[in-house]
Amino acid sequence: MKKILAVMIAFLAIGSISVYAQNQDKEPTMEEIAEKHTKDLVRKLNLSDSQEFYVDSILVHNYVALKEALEDMQRSGMQDPDNYRHVNEMWQQKTMDAMKKVLDDQQYIGYLRYIGKGKDYKKGKDGKWYLKSELKKQNKNPQ
Predict the structure, then answer these.
(1) What is the pLDDT of residues 90-135, one digit of tens each?
(2) Residue 100 — φ and ψ, nearest 5°?
(3) DSSP assignment, residue 25?
């Protein structure tokens, strides 16, 4: 059961936890994972200070809430991996919805790519993200 909990947390956490090698005996807390992801997003998405604050707040809250929900399921004896996956997906969707309110369109697409959900987007020659289908149309009809 602990393996299921660890797998579900890894799904949401999305990043490598190996950064915390100095604490090899201790698993990182959800707050530490959120802090690492916030730093990654600040660098990748060029977040403003206020965006950084909101992103950190969203990630900490949602990661902690996900962990609590999964632990509650474990304590209640639930063993079906589909239920754990559903809870994980629900919290991931809540995180995406909150991020959409904080980030501009280009940053949000970058966030989707960061979590592995933005496969429909590709960078254009101007450095902005576009749907792959839009890029094909632009390339076929140059102005």
Answers:
(1) 999 999 999 999 999 999 999 999 999 989 998 888 888 888 888 7
(2) -60, -30
(3) T
Token pair for residue 48? Answer: 């403003």
Write the CA distances from 69 to 4, 82, 87, 89, integer angstroms. Answer: 13, 14, 8, 12
Q: Is 107 left (phi over 0), alpha (psi -120 to 50) or beta?
A: alpha
Judged by DSSP in three states, 98 sits in helix
60: which residues sit within 8 A by CB, 6+ positions away? 30, 31, 34, 35
Q: What's the whole-model pTM score?
A: 0.76
Q: What is the pLDDT of residues 10-45, one digit of tens each?
A: 555 544 444 444 445 688 999 999 999 999 999 999
Token duo for residue 38: 């916030």
